[in-house]
Give the backbone structure.
Amino acid sequence: MFTRSATRDMTRRVRVWGPAWAMMVLIFVLSSMSGLPPAPGGIDDSVAHALEYAVFAALLLRGFTGARWRRMGVGAVWRAVLLATLYGVTDEVHQRFVPGRTAEIADLTADAAGAAVAAVLIWAWSIVRRA
């Protein structure tokens, strides 16, 4: 049986990390589809990848900092970008096995760039916010 403290801790972890896990599932599901409809508004595929992984990196950064601005630092930024990029690698490998999909370095580059830009902007905003 869980103690009240353990239950609170587990609930907090789910609240903090749940959105990042949900994004991972969404990316996996989208990558499992043989054909995707075009991005809304005629957004270029590379831009769509960058935006998708920008959101993912932001959610990872939220998890690494425990959803607390004061814990935002270079280490959390690097971990978020690295994990998002590594997940992008696994996503591209996964797509090689999905009929009608291909693995592309350009997509991985857009994933990494989107993750890095988002994480750095959030970090910069945290510095401004603390000042």
